[in-house]
Write a structure and sequence with these properties.
By secondary structure, the protein is mainly alpha-helical. Helices cover 67% and strands 0% of the residues. Helix 2 crosses helix 4 and helix 7 packs antiparallel against helix 8.
């Protein structure tokens, strides 16, 4: 079976997905806390580039992210970030829209979203309603 990256249209689609996702994060109310958390870190330009490299490898393409960072452990990458259940849901909302907007077709879109759902909820490390800094 072909890697996911080939089935969704290659790096061009991954780039479009990341760009659309962060455009949504920057404009939708559901993205406000995600945006805030990224501004506490390295900023949006940095995160767009990092997520592109991460998702490229995650989908079975080039492994530049792992080669540069030595791993792709999501918990380790996000350990310093206060993530509430509602943050995970908001991330998923924006990603679901981005998947649709970039033309990722079913049933692959649903499979990807299910995997993203497990990953997003695995990263939750704060209680609902926790007031982040």
């Amino acid at each position: 079976m072909q890697p996911v990256i080939d089935r969704i249209g290659g790096e061009e689609t991954v780039r479009a997905l990341v760009e659309r996702f962060y455009d949504l994060v920057e404009t939708l109310p559901q993205g406000a806390q995600i945006l805030h958390l990224h501004f506490r870190g390295h900023g949006m330009a940095h995160v767009r580039a990092e997520q592109f490299e991460f998702l490229t490898a995650f989908f079975g393409g080039r492994r530049s992210y792992a080669e540069r960072h030595g791993h792709m452990n999501l918990r380790e990458i996000h350990a310093h970030v206060p993530i509430r259940p509602e943050d995970a849901e908001n991330w998923l909302h924006c990603m679901d829209l981005a998947l649709a907007d970039t033309g990722v077709a079913e049933p692959l879109r649903g499979q990807i979203f299910k995997t993203f759902g497990r990953a997003a909820h695995m990263l939750v490390n704060r209680e609902a309603g926790f007031a982040p800094e």
